[in-house]
Write a structure and sequence with these properties.
This protein is α/β, with parallel strands linked by helices. The protein is built from five helices and seven strands; from the N terminus they run αβββαβαβαββα. Helices cover 37% and strands 20% of the residues. Strands 2-1-5-4-3-6-7 form a seven-stranded mixed β-sheet, covered by helices on one side. α2 packs across α5.
């Protein structure tokens, strides 16, 4: 039953993504689209909240198997950053685009031991950033410009580290 529910949710999102008219998402070298989202902690974050630091954004969903597989990799990557002075000047933000209630998403994050900040995103934010397949990662520079996008799909901690290190 759980797999059927996940498949229905995935197909619904696919239908939404493929039928929406989308302007061209911001490209590397262009300003990152502004956002305001609520974190699972209840705090609100904006793009300006991360000014002066690089920001790795991970667009994901609970129904996405590679996204679930990445949870320990993101935890490990964040732990590496926490071991550096000032977090290495890098912040991580996971943007959930599930049509799931806050409490259910918080329960999911606890069950899967996600230790990084998770924001409740929207399909519009995902589209603004060009996130049409998940997981989808991009790096925003300290100046708010998009630095680089990774190909959609699973990326381990070494790939995430390499992305950040290329732009330090």
């Amino acid at each position: 039953m759980r797999r059927l529910r996940a498949a229905v949710i995935a197909l619904t999102w696919l239908a939404v993504l493929t039928t929406c008219s989308v302007e061209r998402p911001a490209a590397p070298g262009e300003p990152a689209p502004d956002f305001e989202m609520e974190l699972l902690s209840g705090e609100r974050v904006t793009l300006a909240s991360y000014a002066g630091r690089m920001l790795l954004i991970d667009f994901w969903a609970t129904w996405c198997p590679p996204c679930v597989k990445e949870v320990p990799e993101l935890n490990a990557f964040l732990a590496e950053l926490d071991g550096e002075p000032d977090g290495g000047g890098v912040a991580v933000l996971a943007v959930a685009i599930d049509p799931t209630e806050h409490d259910k998403l918080a329960d999911w994050a606890r069950e899967h031991d996600a230790r990084y900040p998770i924001a409740l995103g929207t399909i519009e934010i995902a589209q603004d950033y060009g996130a049409f397949q998940f997981p989808y990662h991009l790096l925003i520079g300290p100046d708010g410009l998009i630095v680089e996008r990774l190909m959609p799909g699973y990326h381990d901690r070494d790939e995430l580290r390499a992305l950040v290190d290329r732009h330090r």
